[in-house]
Amino acid sequence: MTSTAQDVSNPARDPDQYSDPSGETMKAVVWMGKNDVKVGVVSETEKGDILGHEFCGKVEAVGSAIKNLNIGDRVVASFQIACGQCMYCKKGHSSQCERTNESSTMASMFGGRTAGIFGYSHLTGGFAGGQAEYVRVPFGEVNLLPLPDDVSDEKGLYLSDVLCTSWHCVADTGVNKGDVVAIWGAGPIGQMCARFSLMHGASRVIIIDGGNGAWRLQFTKSKIPQVECVNFSDLPKGESVTSMLNKMVHGGPDVALECAAGEYAKSWAHYFQQLLGMETDTSELLNEMITSVKSFGRCGVTGVYVGYVNHFNIGSLMQRGVRLIGNGQAPVHKYWKDLLAQVREGKINPLEMVTHRGKLEDMEAIYDVFNKREEGMQKIFVQTRFSDPPSADSPQLSTFS
Ligand SMILES: [Zn+2]
């Protein structure tokens, strides 16, 4: 049984039920097809889902059952929609909430469902996302965390997803004192996983990236100088990522973390299989992680996979006792209060990954820059006409159009 309305990805489809009685319209980022987003006035848009699952803002209105929030409160939203009451919510596994996602496709593909997720996919309930001037948050008392005055929006926002996802990846894979940790992907999640691995006692952190994303290696190193870098597109002749890591660490790293969202195919075999629809994801990064770690090493997967892979190296996994851990969608509610406290104490500075600030109206151009992994854009804070001016220590507004 679900207990919240599903597939409200575009409120304009049912204006009688969802539109503002005053007739006021709002701007939002909508998905129009692969690599195509538009900023539209939603009430005039006939097709297109509202994107965005990481957002914060001020409470504009509350439902009658909400006791812990007041109009005007500054809050950050969890990217997942949890009910707070079901078996998984009670276990602290809020990302697997049983009551907020009724997608039968996901249930038959995965044998179970995740929680509903804002602005993500109809597989996760089809909820309208937060790259918009207004957003409706079901179970607001569970899924909104008030931000204290000493935590700016720019610091609080990332409790929605990136901070919790990264912390969960490191904690769930079991990074311990003295471990050598290798991280695939130097984007915001990889960068934060590097920071959090060191906070969990890792003795060395090696980060792997390449191609269009290679500049992010130096960006991460500029923020976390202890990090060692491997550029996979610039390896010496005859060297692979696995052989390189084995040269750097006897036997290979203890732990591998997949933060690259294994969506890209490096080899032609996988490229054509994906093109022909023979696999939905590629096993290349997983195999690289499995063959790189020490025997009995651990591999955590937080990068997004949605289906099946071919050529999976089950032999190495079994023979060498490698533990492959799907970290799952991160249970935000399990971590966000503690992480907020660490942000307040200055132990975690989310701004170290934030490079830009842009306007909602410029999102088409911003997506374009971001998809090309253009030099220098690690993480962007997007403001709407309701946002406060930038805080002193965060990037100032850039224009993109
Ligand atoms: Zn629940």
Automatic annotation (TrEMBL):
Pfam families: ADH_N. Residues 1-23 are annotated as: Disordered. InterPro entries: ADH-like_N, ADH_Zn_CS, GroES-like_sf, NAD(P)-bd_dom_sf. Keywords: Metal-binding, Oxidoreductase, Zinc. This is Alcohol dehydrogenase-like N-terminal domain-containing protein. Gene3D superfamilies: Medium-chain alcohol dehydrogenases, catalytic domain, NAD(P)-binding Rossmann-like Domain. Its cofactor is Zn(2+). It comes from Uncinocarpus reesii (strain UAMH 1704). GO terms for molecular function: oxidoreductase activity; zinc ion binding. Residues 45-148 form the Alcohol dehydrogenase-like N-terminal domain. It comes from the Eukaryota.
